[in-house]
Structures are given as C-alpha cells and as structure tokens.
Amino acid sequence: MKCTKCSAINNDCCVDEVGEMIQKLVRVFQLFERDQIKIYGFTTSQCYTLLEINKSGSLSMNEISEKMNLNSSTMTRILDKLVRDKYILRSRDESDKRIVIVTLTEKGIEAADKLNKTVKEYYKKIIENIPEGEVEAVLKSVNILQKAFEKANPNCC
C-alpha cells in the first residue's frame, strides 16, 4: 500500500505519527472518564455495562460479555459490584435455568439515564468542535480506525 503522505510503498513512515495521535486520543479519553464518568462513582466498564443493559432492557451474561468484549470472569466481577450496590439484578431465565439474565433496578435505571445524558452531552460538545461539513468524514475515519484496531488485535471483538 502506498502512503499518501510521503509516497512510500510501506506504512513505516506513519507509524510514529499514528502512534502519537492514538496515545493522545487515549489520554483525552482518560480525562473524559475522570471528568464525566467517575464523578458518578463508576468505572468506565461499569458505566458502559449499565448503558448496554439500559439499551436492551435485559441481557444474558453471555450477551453482555460479548457486547462489552470481556471474558465472563471479568464481566462477573464488574456485575458483582453493580449487584452489591443495587444497580442491577441477576435472575435465571424461566425457560433455561442455566442462563443468567441481568436487568437494571430502579436505581440502575436512574444511574444509566444520568450517565447516558452526560455521555451524550460530551459527545455533542465534540461534534460541535468538528469543522462544519466534516462530521461524516470523521465518522468514516473513526470507523476505519476501529476496524484496523480489531484486525490488529486477534483477541478483540
């Protein structure tokens, strides 16, 4: 593949630049986590777990593990804390008792709604700072980057 930046045949010329940009993006996201999520007392994984369950109404343990791209033991630890703090309930599926279903409590719904509003407000601010007419190009580029991450990491997604 030919690099459009320097016309090199390989991509070695952009490795440092891409790496630095991704590192900066990760740091900015860590600040987002600190400022937007942790103020509610949740970890990032807990936040996105609550949001995923809220979107679906209920999910099996396997479904939530897949959506969060986490193994079941890690997901169980995250859910244990949310159960302990009364944000979610676990129950057995009526038709197959081996399946554990996860749902939000009233407290969990309230927390998920607050988190969802906060996250959306933050993303709205990001969009407002993208030059006019460039949002679609950014979405396309982020999608390409996400797929590249997934292909580069054999344990991903």
Describe the structure.
With 157 residues, this protein is mainly alpha-helical. Helix content is 62%, strand content 8%. It has six helices and three strands, in the order ααβααββαα. Strands 1-3-2 form a three-stranded antiparallel beta sheet. Strand 2 and strand 3 form a beta hairpin. Helix 2 packs across helix 5 and helix 3 packs across helix 4. The radius of gyration is 19 Å and the shape is globular. 13% of the residues are buried.
Topology of this protein?
Layout: H1 15-37, H2 44-56, E1 58-60, H3 61-68, H4 72-84, E2 88-92, E3 100-104, H5 106-128, H6 135-152
Antiparallel strand pairs: 1-3, 2-3
Largest sheet: number of strands, sense, barrel closure: 3 strands, antiparallel
Number of strands: 3
In whole angstroms, how far apart are the ends?
25 Å
Q: List low-pLDDT spans.
A: none
Sketch the topology as an H/E string, one letter per element.
HHEHHEEHH
Output the keywords:
single chain, 6 helices, three-stranded antiparallel β-sheet, mainly alpha
Question: What's the short version?
Answer:
With 157 residues, this protein is mainly α. Helix content is 62%, strand content 8%.
